[in-house]
Amino acid sequence: MKTVIIKEYGDFTIPDTYVLDLTQVTVKDCLGCWTCWWKTPGRCVHKDLDEFYTKYVNADKVIIFSKVTRGFVSGNLKTLFDRSIPHYLPYTTYTTGETMHVPRYERYPDVEVYYQGEFASEEGRKVYEDYICRTFYQFYFKGISVKPINDFCLEEVI
Amino acid sequence: MNTIILNGSPKGTKGNSEIFARQFIKTMKHPCEVKYIAKENPQQLAEFVRNFDAIIIVMPLYVHAMPGIVMKFIEQLRPAKKGQAIGFIIQAGFPETAHERYIENYLRLLAQELNYTYLGTVCKGEAAGTYMKPEFMNKKLFKQLNHLGRIYEQTGAFDKGIKEKFGHPYKLSKFQLIFLQQLEQTGIGKIGWHKFLKANNAYDQRLDRPFL
Considering only CB atoms, which chain B residues are within 8 Å of A56? Predict the structure, then answer.
């Protein structure tokens, strides 16, 4: 199983994984230039994520350790989400009853998100969880789970 | 109300958010100052906005929420000074504004958590091509944005009628869906994209999967 870890906290040693350590890496912000759609299809104008992209689109599973920031995903992680746009085509489809972009790749990994941090209310927690589920649904990920870090079990992941 | 407009687009002065912001302030008696999140240091900007009674962030929808640079600003935003207000204007590409419900819910809770008076979030779909359209095609939109800004200047609130109109359609109706699905089958929806791809000599690479 090919696994990619994106982490904003913790020191999880999981064998045979590729790690994007967001405690050390600041992802270059999306410029909104659409170069990835109409100049170099599938490739971002920034090159800082090229190695990550190769691991990401070929992975079976992506595990994200997300640090809840102001009740949401951090700016750095949000930028990483914004920079996922190259993996989809600019065309739109309506087959699910709403507008979605068309996938560029045949398959996408599953995702498990484990978050650390407090919410001001239960509603806040739901808003955060719903947002992540929605994002990966639109990204055509099939298995999607979003849980607090206390639910993380290393044995289940390996 | 002494209001600062923050343009949250990474494209700064060159995107649709700029057009929305400029049209919003265009017919005000005393147009608000506009600052660009993309050009500012988030911490210093968060300090600067404390001098205003209200903050309005005008931004594009990126992956169902605010662009990363706006979240970096929100990370630095401090709790409101007494009576401070915050509101948002979001312009998005997809026609139905149901896509904005996730971020709308978050922004409402954010305002509450930081003790800002919440002015609301105005969402407008089908806006990605605004900057490409000739002016006559944007005439109605601009008139509505002018009105939204004028009423805001007079009352300190977003006009409910315009907010509601911009919010339509919330979801695609059966008729719209059938129409769009047929359009999808004909490939008409791709024509615009193909024009740009060809202009950039990238048409043959349009379906590339470079990271496999």
Answer: 211
The predicted-structure confidence for B112-140, as pLDDT tens digits, reads as follows: 999 999 999 999 999 999 999 998 999 99
Find the CB nearest A42 among B75, B77, B208: B208
Q: pTM to 2 decimals?
A: 0.97
The model's confidence at residue A158, banded by pLDDT at 50, 70 and 90, is low
Check if A123 contacts B (Cβ < 8 Å). yes
Residues 136-155 of chain A with CB under 8 A from chain B are: 138
Claim to verify: residue B158 and residue B184 sit in the same structural domain: no
Q: Do B172 and A95 touch (CB under 8 A)?
A: no
The Cα–Cα gap between B172 and A122 comes to 30
**Class of residue B160 by CB neighbours under 10 A (exposed 0-12, middle 13-18, buried 19+):** exposed
B58: containing domain: 3-166
The answer to whether residue B186 sits within a structural domain is yes
> Among B126, B72, B120, which Cα is nearest to B99's?
B126
Q: Does A62 touch chain B (CB under 8 A)?
A: no
What lies within 8 Å, CB to CB, of B140 at 6+ separation is none
Of residues B62, B109, B209, nearest to A42 (C-beta): B209
Nearest CA in chain A to B106: A127
Considering its fold, how many domains does chain B have in total? 2
ipTM above 0.95, yes or no: yes
Q: Are A14 and A5 in contact (CB under 8 A)?
A: yes
Nearest residue, CB atoms, A105 vs list B75, B110, B209? B209
pLDDT in tens, B166-198: 999 999 999 999 999 998 999 998 999 999 999
Question: Do B121 and B178 reside in the same domain of the chain?
Answer: no
Pairing mode of beta strands A88-93, A110-116: unpaired
- Residue A156 predicted with pLDDT over 80: no
Domains along chain A with CATH numbers? 3-157 (3.40.50.360)
